[in-house]
Design a protein that fits this description.
The chain is an all-alpha fold and 50 residues long. It is built from one helix and no strands. The chain crosses the membrane at residues 17-42.
């Protein structure tokens, strides 16, 4: 019984680490894309005439 709990806790810990890494990478990519998009909008702002 104890071995089953130990194995399940090990698997759960490994899954949590993997999910954390994926969330970190997605967050960084989303942040970089937002910065690039915002810079493009600011750059083309001066070409708009009302």
């Amino acid at each position: 019984m104890n071995e089953k709990v130990y194995r399940s806790m090990s698997l759960s810990g490994a899954c949590n680490i993997a999910v954390g890494i994926v969330i970190l990478v997605v967050g960084i990519v989303a942040g970089v894309m937002a910065i690039i998009s915002g810079a493009g909008l600011l750059k083309t702002k001066k070409n708009i005439m009302f």
